[in-house]
């Protein structure tokens, strides 16, 4: 592509999962579409987050399961084969090559411009290509910002000199550090602590609050217990006040906390949240502030742009920072852009084809720790804060015959939130080995607004862990008689 200014119906900034899915949907709607990316097509998820992190964790969880199965314990007594784990990780990250993604874009007739894209006024994007060329792009209908997020590092003196790990260095590591300090208590923190402890690191976690603070409290408590049983030193109420790499910047890292505590580690991973990747995409040229989140309406338009051509989709809009939600938003936003381009009315009522209802009512999430955590919808506390009158139903998953079959000494817990007015499930959380596979059924129950009385007719197979649904209904019925 030369330095001219070709026009497209849609210009997409960012070729992560969100941008790719949006481009696919606008192209399917018959709109010419170009996507701009300055790194690898597939983005953070494919190369530095979801895919490589779960590849590191899969052997860890499989070994943990095998150790609880009679007849298998002796076969998995030894340490993990670290080179084999890393080789598997490399394969799942496509060896950090995006040729397959490029081939897919070609197959759906979406054009690609590699380089750093910036807005340059209304409906205009300028791309600086790797060879120094400037390519101008014009959007007839929409520019969609799908640039995602970056690691939010704290403002600590000398932090850059320490060369801290973020999720990128952790998931792409070539060696297992003897000692790893993990700062944070969210998903990245607990997953990487789980992985590197199993791979052989001595892991110390420095956590300001609790683990997995946005989920049901028992989830963080059970993961904390398991991490400590695995040998992770979990320290709560600690904020990092200073970091220094010893021996002239080539030795171990000394991490100091606000209470004077000190941890010495070979590497330090900061998993302290995400920030919008909007600092250098030309927002100032259209009257917006660089570096901030891009709030949107329910059609993913940025309201400050009165002409309605600018959309922000995925993590960058701060609605639900997960890959699958970004892809969900992209499917809806692509359909919205297509409908508006054709002058068609939007089906934007609750659960409509052009409505992102799941962003607020049914966001599913899995944390691939040992034990796993799976949730959808609000927690009990969130539901009550939203003004819902709810019943909270808990059950010990370890009592289920399928759980006993799955692993000796199975420890797990389920919680379902029932809206007493509508008599349907609005949220669910499961903690325990293998519970990730319970999540879709819970998500279907929430999005379909299935009455609890109808759930009695969804018969779980015996003996499976999914029988927990029957036990929850029985517990609910026996506790207050509201379930028939």
TrEMBL record:
What keywords tag this UniProt record?
A: FAD, Flavoprotein, NAD, Nucleotide-binding, Oxidoreductase
Q: Which residues bind FAD?
A: 54, 117, 315
Give disulfide pairs as residue numbers.
45-50
* SUPFAM superfamilies assigned: FAD/NAD(P)-binding domain, FAD/NAD-linked reductases, dimerisation (C-terminal) domain
Cofactor binding description? Binds 1 FAD per subunit.
Q: Which family does it belong to?
A: Belongs to the class-I pyridine nucleotide-disulfide oxidoreductase family.
This protein's species is: Streptomyces sp. R17
- Give yes or no: UniProt keyword Flavoprotein: yes
Q: Which cofactor does it need?
A: FAD
FAD/NAD(P)-binding domain sequence ranges: 8-325
Q: What is its EC number?
A: 1.-.-.-
Q: Where is the Pyridine nucleotide-disulphide oxidoreductase dimerisation domain?
A: 363-469
Q: Which residues bind NAD(+)?
A: 184-191, 273
Xref: Pfam families: Pyr_redox_2, Pyr_redox_dim
What Gene Ontology molecular function terms does this protein carry? flavin adenine dinucleotide binding; NAD(P)H dehydrogenase (quinone) activity
Q: Which InterPro entries match?
A: FAD/NAD-bd_sf, FAD/NAD-binding_dom, FAD/NAD-linked_Rdtase_dimer_sf, Pyr_nuc-diS_OxRdtase, Pyr_nucl-diS_OxRdtase_dimer
The protein here is known as: NAD(P)/FAD-dependent oxidoreductase
């Amino acid at each position: 592509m030369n330095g001219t200014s070709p026009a497209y119906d849609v210009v997409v900034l960012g070729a992560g999962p969100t941008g790719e899915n949006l481009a696919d949907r606008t192209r399917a709607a018959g709109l010419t579409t170009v996507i701009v990316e300055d790194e690898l097509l597939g983005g953070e998820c494919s190369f530095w987050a979801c895919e490589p992190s779960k590849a590191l964790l899969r052997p860890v969880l499989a070994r943990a399961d095998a150790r609880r199965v009679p007849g298998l314990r002796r076969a998995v007594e030894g340490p993990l084969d670290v080179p084999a784990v890393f080789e598997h990780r490399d394969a799942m990250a496509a060896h950090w090559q995006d040729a397959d993604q490029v081939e897919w874009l070609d197959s759906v007739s979406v054009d690609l411009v590699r380089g750093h894209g910036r807005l340059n006024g209304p409906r205009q994007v300028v791309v600086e290509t790797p060879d120094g060329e400037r390519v101008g792009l014009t959007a007839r209908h929409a520019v969609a910002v799908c640039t995602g997020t970056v690691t939010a590092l704290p403002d600590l003196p000398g932090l850059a000199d320490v060369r801290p790990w973020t999720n990128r260095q952790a998931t792409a590591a070539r060696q297992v550090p003897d000692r790893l300090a993990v700062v944070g208590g969210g998903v990245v923190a607990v997953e990487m602590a789980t992985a590197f402890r199993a791979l052989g690191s001595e892991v110390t976690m420095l956590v300001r609050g609790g683990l997995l603070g946005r989920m049901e409290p028992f989830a963080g408590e059970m993961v904390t217990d398991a991490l400590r049983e695995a040998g992770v030193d979990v320290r709560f109420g600690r904020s990092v006040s200073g970091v220094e790499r010893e021996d002239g910047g080539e030795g171990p890292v000394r991490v100091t906390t606000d209470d004077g505590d000190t941890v010495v580690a070979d590497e330090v991973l900061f998993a302290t949240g995400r920030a919008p990747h909007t600092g250098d995409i030309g927002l100032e040229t259209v009257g917006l502030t660089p570096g901030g989140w891009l709030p949107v309406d329910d059609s993913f338009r940025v309201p400050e742009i009165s002409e309605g051509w600018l959309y922000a989709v995925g993590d960058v809009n701060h609605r639900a920072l997960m890959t699958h939600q970004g892809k969900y938003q992209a499917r809806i936003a692509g359909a919205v852009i297509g409908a508006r381009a054709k002058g068609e009315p939007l089906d934007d009522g609750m659960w409509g084809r052009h409505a992102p209802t799941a962003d607020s009512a049914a966001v599913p999430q899995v944390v691939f720790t040992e034990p796993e955590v799976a949730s959808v919808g609000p927690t009990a506390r969130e539901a009550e804060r939203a003004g819902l009158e709810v019943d909270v139903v808990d059950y010990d998953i370890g009592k289920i015959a399928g759980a006993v079959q799955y692993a000796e000494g199975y420890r797990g817990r389920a919680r379902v939130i029932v809206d007493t007015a509508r008599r349907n499930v609005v949220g669910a959380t499961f903690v325990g080995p293998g519970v990730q596979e319970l999540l879709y059924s819970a998500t279907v129950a929430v999005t379909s607004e299935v009455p609890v009385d109808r759930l009695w007719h969804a018969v779980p197979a015996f003996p499976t862990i999914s029988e927990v649904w029957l036990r929850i209904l029985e517990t609910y019925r026996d506790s207050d008689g509201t379930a028939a």
